[in-house]
Amino acid sequence: MPETSATPARVFVDTPRLSLGRMLRSRKLWESRQLHPVARPLLLVVVGVLLAIAVGFIVASGSFTRYDLIAVAMYLAIAAFAWHPLTAAFIAMLVGVIGVVFTNSGGDLIELALAACLVAATCSRVVMVVYAAVLVVLTVYLDVATPTLTEGGIFGIAGIAVISFIAGVTFRIITVRESLLVDDRVRLVRHLEGMAREDQERIADELHDGIAHDLTLVLFHARALPKQPDVAGREVSLATIEESSTRALHSVQSLLALMRDPSASSEQPADENVTDTVVGLGRLLNNAGIPTVVKTPTTDAEVPALAQRLLGAAAIEAVTNVIKHAPHSSDAAIEVTVDELGVELVVKNSNSRASSAQGSSRGGRGLARARQRLAQHNGHLEAGATNNSWIVRADVPLHPPRDSRPVTS
Mind listing the pLDDT tens digit for each residue in 161-220? Predict the structure, then answer.
């Protein structure tokens, strides 16, 4: 059976532990973000209650003062955090400055300190720093320039601001943790899907490289058996059918073992010289009624085992395509040449219908996989029609570049 894919390495995704340190170092944590969808309606409900209370006081007093205007503006700014946090933060700062400077109201400062929770939960670090600076300046101004704050009131404002900020950062951490968990889950799902695709590719390669090739021979000789004119020809067909059926059965057993235990490596055939492979393939084509000339190197050459397997697999694929797509070829040729640069394989069959009969194999799975395997080891494969012939040409360098890193499939 031709070379099959090596067992893919089973390296599971190393999902980092979602520790507090990791989240604090995460860039996502300090990015500007929208308020969590769950928190948005709750915020609007709270703001609605505050506005209702403010309207109640206005109705009860019978007048609408500038204090009431600033309070309503602050509540509306807080409500804006549900849609535009950055705009809401600057509006809240502006309203706070107006309220503290023009009314000397400590209540506006407390509301500004409480809104620090929303700033910490939604805005970027730069906005947080600006907001904190404005809050500190207004607190110092109110404590130094006016008698509004009671003794030690500055510490109360600072305490409210710190608690609000911690609450906002905590809510931000919870939100980011949810986002990181979703990202890790997506990454893990993609990894598992990739592993599943690798297993599917391995099974497909087992089916194509082993069973499909053997069944092609069985089908060809089963069709040719009734037409054989002599006993010798029938015996050749019967022997080929028996050998190919035995190999196909063994391949099915190997495939079933692979499906039961995907971590098990598929059984690799013993290393076979590419010369022996092409000689056997030439005999196979001759038995199939296609006169074939086989040319191999006259001298022994040190060809790496990997190159032998890759070219052997390419030769098997090319010959199988001849039997499958061009069984009425007038003749064929298989040639292997070795020089100081590498090893080259050429498989050619002549047929007036070769171009149309084999044109579909250019994009077939077999040649595509052979081309991919060769490319992974700095080799090349070309296939195409020329005049009334179909040629498959493959080569592998004897000494790959040192910086090349073949990728096993």
Answer: 899 999 988 888 888 887 778 888 888 888 888 887 877 777 776 666 667 777 777 777
Angstrom distances, CA of residue 384 to CA of 31, 209, 294, 322, 393: 56, 21, 20, 13, 9
Cα 367 → chain centroid: 25
Whether 183 and 301 map to the same domain: the answer is no
Tell whether 221 is covered by a domain: no
Domain assignment of residue 158, given as a range: 20-188
Q: DSSP letter string over 106-127?
A: HHHHHHHHHHHHHHHHHS-HHH
CB atoms inside a 10 Å sphere around CB 281: 22
CB 318 within 8 A of CB 347: yes
Q: Contact 338/349 with Cβ under 8 angstroms?
A: no
Q: CA-to-CA distance for 338 and 110, rounded, in angstroms?
A: 88
- The domain total for the chain is 2
* Domain shared by 181 and 279, yes or no: no
Statement to judge: residues 282 and 172 lie in one domain: no
Domain boundary among 169, 188, 207: 188
State the pTM of this model: 0.48
- The residue behind tokens 């002599």 is 230
Strand partners, 332: 292, 349
